[in-house]
């Protein structure tokens, strides 16, 4: 009986809506570390961005397997926001789990990370690339097995003494940086909403100016 129903659904085109929904899904992953002690640190800029995006679209994060998630729709696309609960070094486990659960291919996954190699406030979108020494990206590349996914890198600068990199990225924002963050986050959330609509190339051109 089930096979007959499936055949009839195919014949009548009843599955097309479901397939269309899947093809319009995007997984937006903000990388960071869970815990109150990491909340306002430079390494958690990814969390700040997806939090701002959820607030903008009036979506609510809920605890889930491998991370907190929130969902909303925008211009015909479904967005799934993810804050991995695996800690930065194991981010790939959460990304792979939600890709498989929601049937989202790697090219429709957008990762938001901090970047020591960019001056504070600089934002760069790339369609693929190496991990650049970032442990979160390194985990994703290893677990997912490829690196051809869009990633938005937000510069946090490198104003630290030799050997103090960990202290710097796990340090809190300065007052001056805190004042500048809202505009940086706003530009990033706009790019995330634009990308599925106008494409990576055009979004890259506008964001990377």
Characterization of the model:
- This protein is α/β, with parallel strands linked by helices and 209 residues long.
- It has one domain (23-207): Peptidyl-tRNA hydrolase (Rossmann fold, 3-Layer(aba) Sandwich).
- Helix content is 43%, strand content 20%.
- The protein has eight helices and seven strands; from the N terminus they run ααβαβββαββαβααα.
- The chain has helices at residues 2-12, 16-23, 45-56, 91-102, 135-144, 165-169, 175-198, 200-207, and strands at 25-30, 62-64, 67-74, 77-84, 109-115, 123-126, 151-155.
- The chain has a seven-stranded mixed beta sheet with strand order 2-3-4-1-5-7-6, with helices on both faces.
- Strand 2 and strand 3 (67-74) form a beta hairpin.
- Helix 7 (175-198) packs antiparallel against helix 8 (200-207).
- The longest helix is centred in the last third of the chain and has 24 residues, at 175-198.
- The radius of gyration is 18 Å and the shape is globular.
- The termini are far apart.
- The model is unreliable at 11-20 (pLDDT under 50).
